[in-house]
Amino acid sequence: MAMLLGLFLSGTAAGALGGLLGLGGGIFLVPVLTLLFDLPVRVAVGTSLVCVIATSAGVAALATEGGGADVPLALRLEIATAAGAVLGGVAGAFIPARVLSLVFAAVVFGSAGYTLSKARGHGNEEAMFRRDYRPRRWTLGYAVASLAGMVSGLLGVGGGFIKVPTMYAIMGVPLGVATATSNFMVGITAAASVFVYLGRGDVRPTVTVATAAGVFLGAALGTVLQSRLRVSWLRWALVVLMVGIGVQMLWKGF
Amino acid sequence: MDRAMRRVAQGLSAFALALMATGLVLALVHGGATAPLALDLRERSHRLMLFGIGALAVLPGVRVLVAMSYYTAARRVAEAVIALVVALELLLSMITGG
């Protein structure tokens, strides 16, 4: 029972991150499930994939009018991500994972710096959601989305933490729309992999359901909180998270 | 389309959550049951939870299909084709994975 409660609370934290920052939560859940709950990595990844879908579903179900994902943008970037994942699978035989980790760290640090420099142009009046924008710099957006897919295939991370800054800082999408769109995308990416884990029996029902129930609650909390927080606070949270992930990638690379 | 997407997400999530919650309650109850009943309850609870997880897992695909049908009806050909490609990618992964 204590374990189920622990899984529920971990799920709540992952769901809140998803609702707030557009992350699937795999980057948080997999280490927690393996290190704190002593689950095998495959089971942790299977559980995490279901929870990523739960976050995506929870955020979509609770989206306010005009606060949903930019679906055409999500679908276009998703194709680039899938192509990147395939390339990653092929490149895995030629490029050492540590080299890619270093490239990825550079991209993450670059995005964090760019997000901060972009913040100088805005005060606290920046809108979380608006519909009067046109995504720009598609080529760069596709390139980074492909890289995120490539790293997904090679390192087993979802890439939500790079999709949000790509859409926000590079493509000019409002932060709230970028997080909702990223949630939609990570749900699709997770759904593409989850059946492999279900088919192999790597999804343990009791563990997964306890964690996913927490994720739904966390996604609801995150969505409510997001509407009450300033864009500048979320931007800082995103930058701190990116720097943390960048350091982790550097660690893997050296 | 936003509204349709939200309704699909709400409906399927509620259905999946109901199945998973019922399964989890049964799984917690079966601890106190006697041997043959416990096995039966365990089997049923696992099946219910797996059905719930399955319902949740198809949700992103259903959302893509909703988008595809919307773009097709609106004659937005490029977007409909992109949605079709993503839907096919998901279908392929379901077939190869399951």
In words, what does this structure look like?
With 254 residues, chain A is mainly α. Chain A has one domain. Chain A is built from 10 helices and no strands. By secondary structure, chain B is an all-alpha fold. Chain B has 2 domains: 1-57; 58-98. In chain B, 89% of the residues lie in helices and 0% in strands. Chain B contains 4 helices and no strands. In chain B, α1 (2-29) runs antiparallel to α2 (35-57). The mean pLDDT of chain B is 85.
Summarize the structure.
The complex is a heterodimer of chains A (254) and B (98). Chain A has helices at residues 2-21, 26-35, 41-62, 71-91, 97-119, 138-155, 160-170, 175-200, 205-228, 231-253.
Key features?
heterodimer, A: 254 residues, mainly alpha, 10 helices, 78% helix, globular, B: 98 residues, 4 helices
Layout: helices, strands, pairs:
The complex is a heterodimer of chains A (254) and B (98).
Chain A (H helix, E strand, L loop, with lengths): L1 H20 L4 H10 L5 H22 L8 H21 L5 H23 L18 H18 L4 H11 L4 H26 L4 H24 L2 H23 L1
Helix pairs in contact in A: 1-2, 1-3, 1-9, 2-3, 3-8, 3-9, 4-6, 4-8, 5-6, 5-7, 5-10, 6-7, 7-8
Chain B lengths: L1 H28 L5 H23 L1 H15 L3 H21 L1
Helix pairs in contact in B: 1-2, 1-3, 3-4
